Amino acid sequence: MGAKPKLSMYWAASCGGCEIALVNLNEKILAVDAAFDFMFCPCLLDTKKKDIEALPDGDIAITLFNGSLRTEENREMAHLMRKKSKILIAFGSCSSAGCVTALGNLSPKGENFKTIYLDSPSVDNPKGIIPTPHTTVPEGVLELPAYLDRVKSLAQEVDVDYFIPGCPPEPHQIWSVIQAVTSGKPLPPKGSVLGGGTSSVCEECSRTRGDKKIKELRRTFDFKPEPDLCLLEQGLICMGIATRNGCGALCPKVNMPCTGCYGPPEGVEDQGAKMIGALGSIVDVEGLKELKEEEINTKVDEWIRSIPDLAGTFYKYTLAESLLNQLKGRKK
């Protein structure tokens, strides 16, 4: 028998949940081991960067690349894994569209460092030390990868073959990719989203939907939602209407609003704009018709203030790929 195809997984700027999703294959991880030489995963295996550099180009069958590109090391590894992989998959929300890390793009690098290392209530840093790429200590020079000015998704830096959404992806999605490659059947067209649908989470949600007219927005800790009614119609910001289906509406099933981790549905360029437009169309304006313009503006301001974190709500998973990020970059 010939050598098994190589499988790798790289961890860039992310939380580590994608690695847990891989382990959540449970006993099927044995089938993965039988089909592949799982040979690179920095948090699980001791394979070194130099070992990857020594491989022939395209020698790795599949690389699951999770995490956004926040540092120079992340960017360097994106290019290396692209060069060494036949199939490079943006694995999870961080790699696909930036996720939470990309919210740092709303502030300059200096402000991010000030918040992280100087102003955070949990930081004890009396000397006000800010990390730098090179720091001289008695033992020698310590090196850290440079902090990039802006967070990028994987596809904003290198060519990507496929995308698997989710924060993290569901284990069945990982398994479907493994099966597709090992079966020898034709793979989907390049650039396809694997494990996701083309419509919205609302299509998978079993909750009853009626006339979407809401008078106020509420938070999950304000009340206990009715278990069978549309969460958006109960005043909760459920991102399902602006989020790709394929997850099985897991969050609404347990009485929690969708937060948008699968990214926008097919054909939607900006998830946040889609959701803002949806909210604008369901505000109950009947009671505002008799008010003066100043009073209407006050009501609108109250609505906006009831959403404590606009960017974190509407762009939690997709800021790096959003129109807002593009505009912010051009302004800078």
Describe this structure in words.
The protein has helices at 17-23, 29-35, 49-53, 72-84, 93-97, 109-119, 171-183, 250-253, 271-282, 293-305, 310-314, 323-331, and strands at 6-11, 37-40, 60-66, 69-71, 85-91, 134-137, 140-143, 147-152, 162-164. By secondary structure, the chain is an alpha/beta fold. It folds into 2 domains: 1-195, Rossmann fold; 201-331, no CATH class. The strands form 3 sheets. A 5-stranded parallel sheet has the order 2-1-3-5-9, sandwiched between helices. Strands 4-8 form a two-stranded antiparallel sheet. A two-stranded antiparallel sheet has the order 6-7. A hairpin with a 2-residue loop joins strand 6 (134-137) and strand 7. The N and C termini lie far apart (56 Å). The relative contact order is 0.12. The model has no long low-confidence stretch (mean pLDDT 90).
Give the CA-CA distance, first to last residue.
56 Å
What's the helix-strand series? EHHEHEEHEHHEEEEHHHHHH
| Adjacency order of strands in the biggest sheet | 2-1-3-5-9
Number of strands: 9
What portion of residues belong to β-strands? 5-15%
Counting helices, strands and paired strands, the structural category is alpha/beta
CATH class of the largest domain: Alpha Beta
User: CATH homologous superfamily name of the largest domain?
Assistant: NADH:ubiquinone oxidoreductase-like, 20kDa subunit
Q: How confident is the prediction overall: mean pLDDT? A: 90
CATH architecture of the largest domain: 3-Layer(aba) Sandwich
Choose one word for the global shape: globular
Helix content: 25-40%
| Overall domain count | 2
CATH fold naming of the largest domain: Rossmann fold
Question: Ranges with pLDDT <50 over ≥5 residues?
Answer: none
Cα Rg:
22 Å
State the helix count: 12
